[in-house]
Amino acid sequence: MAVDFAESTVEAAFGELYSLVKDVASTVAAFRPQLKKIESTLSEMDPIIKKIYRLYEQLDRLKEMDPIKELLDEGKGLVQKCLSIHSFNLYKKYTLSSDLTEYNKAVQEKFQIYMSLLAARNDAEMLMNMEEIRSLCSSPTNRGAIQSGLGALGNLAVPAAPAFMVGSEVEKSMREIKLRLLEEGVSVIVVTAPGGCGKTTLLKKLCHDGEIKGKFNIIMFVTVSKKPNLIDIVQKMYQHNHLEVPEIKTEGGAFSCLEQLLHKIGQDPVLLVLDDVWAEWESILKKFVCNNIKDYKIVVTSRYGFPCFRPVHHLKPLTHDEAVKLFRQSIAVDDRSMDAPDDETLNQIVKHCKGLPLALTVVAKSLQGMDRPFWERKLLDWSEGHSPLDSDSEILDCIRKSLDGLDGNPSIKERFMDLASFPEDSKIPATALIDMWVEMYKLDFKGVRAIADLLELVYRNLADINRRNSSDDNESYNGHHAMQHDMLRELAIMECDEGEIEKRERLILELIGNNFPDWWIKQRQQPLNARLVSISTDKTFSTPWPNLELPEAEALVLNFQNDMQSNTYALPEFIEKADKLKALIVTNHSFFPAELRNFLVVGSNLRRIRFQRVTVPFLSMGNLSLYSLKKISFFMCYISQTSTSSNAKISNAMPNLVELDIDYCDDLVTLPDGICEIKSLKKLSITNCHNFSTLPEQIGQLASLEVVKLNSCTTLSCLPDSIRSLQNMRLLDISDCLNLTTLPNQIGQMANLERINMRGCLKLARLPKSIVMLRKLKKVICEKEIAIMWGPLKDTLRSLDITLFKEEPSLDWLE
Questions:
Q1: pTM over 0.85
Q2: Contact by Cβ (8 Å): 218, 242
């Protein structure tokens, strides 16, 4: 194609860009696919640019070509960047590849708008001479539409429906949304999922459904994206409905015009699809709701959950069988199935796509028609530590967009990257995240802000959460677990791995066998600046830990799988020198507990420790110096070895402990008296410990104690009388203590007790008379049988709420 370098500024800019694109595409292989696409787009648009320029010259409106020139200049800057990026800088290569792809889309969209304008002008030329066109353009209404960037002439018709869709979750959501749309009334329906899960595809299919098209005379499909132009969208809605397009100068004016439009077209059912809505648009989204219209539905697709709207449909990744089906359909050539390699190879390819429809279709297209060696090469690349995110920029671009919405909220992006500290496919205890985040980011001790941050990640589809019914009104989050989709985790690791090893904020290492990274082995006392360090080892790990200098580390996460033959795990020696370390999380991901050795390296600066599935002598920790420790947690641990020193007391080892959390530790029978000498203790949680039978009589000495949780301690038969001395106690949880027969006679002396959870305590025959003294008691949770005993007390305890517990079927115990 020969480009005409006319004197026009726009035409000159166009020619310069086209020549630059051709030159760079021929010399820089890394960006050739994206540049070739831009070259093709420019080639198609060259004659249109010339024709539009001539038309605008005749209309004396050359100024309105400025947006096109700005777009061309932007492209010139992007293409020039291709020449300055080193081939080994993978992050910048991915980022620029994404920018080039987005730029090509922007060029196509803008030119489509101008093509629509050109077609309209050509029709006008057939009916009137140029002077009449000038008169038309001088009209204030039409002038306003043109000056808005011509966006109002866009088409809001529903895009073509996909040829096929798979997935039980998709089909279920289709049915539920369809039923909701066919109901009368006004509603907002949100369809949410991470990028690439098929939200837009689902809505395209739904809008082409016969019943939906039969009901809604007006269907508008608006792609919103990250930085939408509200004025442009409203003008497009007017144009789509063949109404005179108003001149709009402000967002307030756009809302006013939107309301007027909805009243004009609202005599018939209206369906408005707002596709790819970002979290920042929540307040604007509410403006689209108009309750005065009889039958008006809004369906929103978004990576954000929008908790202010209901219902919300969460699309989940495909199951393996569904993924295989989609992959086979996507790899077909000309609607004919093709002979793929053996099932094992195909299954391995599909597994690497993690059930993500976008990844499945992109990878399938890349292998379409290819011979077996190409399939095996891709598997080989992935087995060497690469992933679809490394090899397919389209997948990476889509997944990375989930982080674009965090530009104004960097703290949430930090939390997102922290989730990668835990192994792939693992359930991440919410309490472990609380321990990390409270110390690293100096949040409130109880973790209220930490949980809010986790839920923000859930709303943005950057994590999932499994919440069990809390027995204590969210005093604890022991039953809550977070999960992160594997590709989101890979993205988080890519974000963490930017820059030089020594300067990274996070260090996430996954060791296979005894293979340490070269930089670690060669290290000569070179300190690392990471604040969060995560090291995961497999069952074959056995080598003693090499030295690691971590002067800035504030949180250390150790994930391991124990070998049944050795059944031991040694804490690294370098912990002892990590002077700023505040949170230590040690998790054994094997089925059986492993003996934890080298515990003496734990330093006095630690504030939180969490152990899972390890054998650790908690009751013999008196010889340690954990003077800064505020919280220690044991989950599925063996902790009751006999003390080796009769003089070593736990109260001396951890005198400032505030919270003790013991869960599913079946070897625990009782607590040593020394725990009752920790005057700072505010929360004592011993849950699901089925052999725990006795609280120490000295518990009344814990004057600071505010919360006692003993739920599911099925052997516990009574509480010590000294519990009456706990004047600061707010919550007592004895739920599912199946053998508890009595409460202390003087329980009424616990003057500040606000809540009692006693569901499942059906062996309680009576309530002590002193219970009427609990003037601050606000809530009791129990079954109907126990509620009968509380009923007469409501006349005295006027603020008391008795909540009846109803057993709900649950398989949580299997976990």
A1: no
A2: no
In the 8-state DSSP scheme, what is residue 333? B
Tokens of 546: 């090499």
Nearest residue to 461 via CA among 735, 765, 192: 192
Pick out the chain residues at pLDDT < 70. Answer: 1-9, 47-48, 50-64, 86-91, 110-155, 163-164, 167, 169, 186, 226, 333-340, 384-394, 405, 407, 468-476, 523-525, 564-565, 619-620, 641-648, 807-815
Q: Could you count the other beta carbons within 10 Å of the beta carbon of residue 384?
A: 7
State how far the alpha carbon of 667 is from the alpha carbons of 634, 675, 683, in Å: 12, 17, 21
CA dist 538 and 590 (Å) reads 10
DSSP 699: G
- Using a 10 angstrom Cβ sphere, with 0-12 exposed, 13-18 middle and 19 or more buried, the burial of residue 500 is exposed
The number of beta carbons lying within 10 Å of the beta carbon of residue 138 is 10
Radius of gyration in angstroms for the set of CA atoms belonging to the chain, rounded to a whole number: 33
Q: Which domains does the chain have, with CATH numbers?
A: 9-138 (no CATH), 168-314 (3.40.50.300), 320-395 (1.10.8.430), 406-488 (1.10.10.10)
Give the pLDDT score at 419: 92
Instruction: Compute the distance between CA of residue 756 and CA of residue 730 in angstroms, rounded to an integer.
Output: 9
Contact 313, 176 (CB under 8 A): yes
SS3 740: coil
**Quick one: pLDDT at residue 5?**
33
Sheet holding 218-225, edge to edge: 218-225, 270-277, 296-302, 187-192, 312-314
Number of DSSP helices (H) and strands (E) in the chain, helices first: 25, 24
**Strand 481-483 with 464-466, pairing:** antiparallel
Cα separations (Å) of 486 from 54, 351, 419, 767? 53, 11, 11, 52
